[in-house]
Amino acid sequence: MHEKIIRLNDHFRWPEGKRVAIIFNIAYEAWSDGQAPGIGPMGNVLKPGFFDTNAESWANFGAVRGIHRLLDYADNRRIKTSVMVNGVLAQRDPKTVRSIHERGHEIVNHSWGMDVIPVYFDEAKERENIERNHQILTQASGVEPTGWISPRGTGSAISTRLLAQYGYTHHGDCNDDDRPYVKAFGDKRIACIPLTMDVNDLPTSIRYGHEPRHMLHAFEDTLNAMLNRERVPLMLDVTAHTHVFGRPSGAWVFDEIMAQVQSRQDVWVTTRQAMAQYVLETTLNKKEWLLS
Description:
Elements: E1 4-7, E2 20-28, H1 53-76, E3 82-85, H2 87-92, H3 94-102, E4 106-109, H4 123-141, E5 147-148, H5 159-165, E6 170-171, E7 181-185, E8 188-192, H6 201-207, H7 213-228, E9 234-241, H8 248-262, E10 267-270, H9 272-285
Parallel strand pairs: 2-3, 2-9, 2-10, 3-4, 5-6, 6-8
Antiparallel strand pairs: 1-7, 7-8
């Protein structure tokens, strides 16, 4: 099926004429049974053939403590977040998954587990993964997810088309723009909302080894640049993983960023779902905001 890309031009604006939008993401992640992250907090891999119980336990912190702490912080700031949820967590702890929706946060389909990456699948297996996760997340939470982000942000070459066909309104497996855009497949349209990496705890603290405060500085510097050095519409993600900044040493940074944003009047604080709805409507009704 032919793919059409619809991008927004520099005249585009967010609601109330705002130029910068901010999304707070919580990555509530787990691995399939018998699987663990490829590397743990010690930073060195084991010999081949040995299961890394240290990495497994480190990752499990997110489901035991991290998700609750980050949601509490967001609720205290009255900020709605977009929460990426693996299907395996809906199987293991449906009560927590339901509470995410009941507290007013968005649930984003995040594949079955962090080891289940769509790029590895053929079309039949990818469809099976989408359907399986959609069903279990809907059953656990009481709401159908409308957005998707693959583990590693790595979908397959056909993921966007499949998600559009299943009625999803947005996905985050894209990094080629600093504002959303739309892909159309016939009469099916889906917003591509980049998952920006500028303010993300995983690369900041795990890949590059910076102290948590570095992410706060990165946010302040990036937002300042967006507001004072740019004149074009932009978006910025602030992302915390429950097994990384779900700990007190990092959660305070997520909370401090929310506190700074909470008092601002010059940015639109939103969810990925609300952003998708706005972009999809705009690209239909505001032709003057489209890149020709």
